[in-house]
């Protein structure tokens, strides 16, 4: 059964920093902090509508959950905890900053049924972290990840591609560090430049020159494939589609189907490796669930090869793993 989240957004309260790219009100689409009654109302409604609550987590997303005032955090958790277990939801998921994790906080989270903790690592280069005013170091990510794992929580790490002062090398450095930490899940977010942020100012002044879209797509698709190949589930690739983001973005890399574009790119690369200069007609087999990914959005991969005079046909075969391609003829 597919995993689902009931998302409850806790906007930018108690956050000890203002990161260069952050405008949480835009990203979460909300300005009002939820009260315990809101949590109860949202969970009651979801419980009456969701068919498999045992595969569903209540997710406190948005700001830095463990940085909000502790009484308020416990109030929200108490409210959500009533909806955990006994035929209700599977657990609670939270997202927070790497420097807002302590044994005391983890004890509280465990007591109230939290199962998964996601950390906004964003980059594992201290230069990039400092330049984007994150207020923590790569070492904080290592330490808090170890602590979270030692408590037995599911660990998720979020990374951003294309931050101010990042380079192709620093992106690979971040990828390798996250790969070595080996979290259970990863989210890959290409940077979206929003109005009313420091990054927005740097961009408009010309000081910050983001990578081009193709570079971001290449890097993201490579990381997506490599993470999944070693058993790290990529649960998000690109910001979720939102009219708030679409209205407030002034640059960067946003596409409502970014993951699909990345998956198309993975297949294009795989196919390209199997093409030789003499042959003009090919049949490739992929897992049946991946035929549209291999074909590409609006047949983009088929058309890409067609422009080079090469005719590609894609067929399905249950025995082929996701992201793998076999040449049939
Ligand atoms: S830690 Fe998260 S919520 Fe806080 S300012 Fe940075 S990005 Fe925004």
Describe the structure in your own words.
This protein has 329 residues and is α/β, with parallel strands linked by helices. Helix content is 40%, strand content 21%. It contains 13 helices and twelve strands. The protein has helices spanning 24-28, 36-49, 70-81, 103-111, 126-131, 138-150, 168-181, 198-205, 213-229, 243-248, 258-273, 291-295, 300-306, and strands spanning 4-10, 56-62, 91-96, 114-122, 154-161, 185-190, 192-194, 233-237, 249-252, 281-286, 311-316, 326-327. The model has no long low-confidence stretch (mean pLDDT 93). Residues 12, 15, 17-19, 22, 24, 63-64, 97, 120 line the site of iron/sulfur cluster (SF4). The site of iron/sulfur cluster has 11 residues, from loops.
What's the short version?
The chain has 329 residues and is α/β, with parallel strands linked by helices.
Q: If helices are DSSP runs of H or I spanning 4 or more residues, what is the number of helices?
A: 13
Secondary structural class: alpha/beta
Oligomer: single chain
The distinct bound ligands, ions and cofactors come out as:
iron/sulfur cluster
Mean pLDDT: 93
- Low-pLDDT residue spans: none
Number of β-strand runs: 12
Q: Describe the biggest sheet? A: 7 strands, parallel
CATH superfamily of the largest domain: Aldolase class I
Q: How big is the Rg?
A: 21 Å
Secondary-structure arrangement, i.e. CATH architecture of the largest domain: Alpha-Beta Barrel
Q: For the largest beta sheet, what order do the strands appear in spatially? A: 1-2-3-4-5-6-8
CATH C-level class of the largest domain is Alpha Beta
What is the beta-strand fraction? 15-25%
Shape: globular
